[in-house]
Fold this sequence. Notes:
Elements: H1 11-70, H2 79-142, H3 150-171, E1 173-175, E2 188-196, E3 204-210, E4 213-215, E5 218-221, E6 223-230, H4 234-246
Helix pairs in contact: 2-3
Amino acid sequence: MIRRQRGGRDPREESTAEEGKPEVVETAAEELSKAGADDSGERSGADTEEVGSGEVAAESEEEPGAALEEEPLEEEPTEEQTAAQALAELEALKDRHLRLAAEFENFRKRTSRERMELATIAQAELVRRLLPTLDDLARVAATPSETTTVEALEKGIELILRNLEKELGDAGLARVEASGARFDPEVHQALMITEVGDVELDETVSEVLMEGYRFRGRLARPAQVVVQRYAPPPAEADEDAARDTGD
């Protein structure tokens, strides 16, 4: 029978405690190994994720170039397509030409119509200004010969003539100078020729048979005139003829 010493431990309890220590150590070692395995697994998983994300990024960077390389090249148009396009352009040009021609024809007709309307307005204005003269002529023609004299009629006609010339002059009518002027075939029409002995009167107008007029600078009617031509006296003509025969 083993006695327990005073103040000491039971030897059996100590042996039991010593036998339990290795189990505790083994359990701790197993837990440490598991924890390391878990850490290494997490690290490998993270590395795998990083590698995977890097590959995806590299693939995403390579995708634009690959897409550009994969785009098909534009095909050149065939001869039929080119001909069809040319015909379409030709038809468009023809249509434009026809439209422009129609617009120009309308413009020409419109301007011609407007010009005729302006001419009509101008003529109407001239007629309106000549109506008083026409009224005066009508009154003179209606005057009974028993109630008037020849002198009164002459004065009335002269007054009417002056009024008529004034209205026409204000409208732009001007008389062509002819009497005593040098003959000008541009504004004079020679109806007769008379011979004169003065050389200075050669090719001059001696008489005006009908007055000529210009309207706003343009010749409305040439003056009908008698033209003088120099003719040497008979004695000078005989001397000239003898001189020519002697030569």
